[in-house]
């Protein structure tokens, strides 16, 4: 095996030759050395050290502020996923009273204490108080697709939007 040796006195790379001896029949099989990825905090510390030499303190603080904003946005995005409604952050604009129960089971939507299914006629109301006549065209894992009866265009409505009251569904007679 060829190993590289780095010396601190010069930038010269020196190969070191090692000899591998034959294993005796009764000796245990050597376990290969498993390399682990460095822990994230070690990586961050080494990045921090490198940045200290290349950037001014002001540039570093600006980058940290940008990273914090990005991390907060990502954490809000993931916490608002339809699969985990219990982890939604409580914002002053949204009180718990404005929340609706919405979930999908066995290809059907359970919303506001009623079950909705594919090809069911509904009214879709938005926050702007628009009322659209629709038909549920499909029920996915985290969303439903509705087809507007006026122009046959399709819209995707996510469970999170129904839970937050961005859209409200009402039953409509099929006639």
TrEMBL record:
Transmembrane segments: none annotated. One of its GO terms (biological process) is regulation of gene expression. Keywords: Nucleus, Repressor, Transcription, Transcription regulation. GO terms for cellular component: nucleoplasm. InterPro entries: Sds3. Its main location: nucleus. It is found in: Nucleus. PANTHER family: BREAST CANCER METASTASIS-SUPPRESSOR 1. This is SDS3 deacetylase. It comes from Himantopus himantopus (Black-winged stilt).
